[in-house]
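User: Please predict the structure of the protein below. I'd like the answer in structure-token form so I can feed it into my own downstream comparison script.

Assistant: Understood. Taking the following sequence of 208 residues as input:
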Amino acid sequence: MRKRIALLLAVTAMLIAAAVSADVIKPMPSAIDARSVANQAVYVKLLDIDWRAETVTVTLCDEATFDREAIQAMTVGDTIVIDGMEIEVRSIWEDMSYIIVNKDGEALALWENDDGIYESAYGYTDMRVWTVVGERTFELPDDLVFLDGINPSTGEPLELPTAHTLRELRQIMEGEEYDPGFSAQNAYMVFDDEQEPVLLVRFYVPWQ
């Protein structure tokens, strides 16, 4: 009986030690300051456009990057934060210059860029992993230009983007045609020196 108790205590201690030693790997802080986006182009997810109030609310996003030492020290049992969610590292597999996390599930690909920082994407796609910088509401200027690289009727890419006014943007969003939406995967905004959005760009990605 005493041996069983001692064994259970030993196993419990090992589990606690493993939990304590597991690391949580978070994306590096973004260089984008959500409070000041003057003269910047920022990936956005459109949350709401209030046509009556003439405002647009967006989530500001940046590509998720990870510290080199943290990724190279990563082990099975650690946790990596992806799109704000904690994902358990169940397996690590190296493929050429890539590190693949959880190859047999919802895989995450990591690779080192020229600056010694690890970039990330989902599986073997170009679908980048994003980190949320913040949420902002901006006034919509009448002279906002919308450049659309997608055919709103079919969802197919255009050879050259079409330019639209704010009024035409509303017609597209309220129409019954195919609409792939606006997310950090396919859209960004350009802001002037007064943090006013002057350009909204949407581009084609194959998985939308």
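That's the full token string. The chain has a mean pLDDT of 85.
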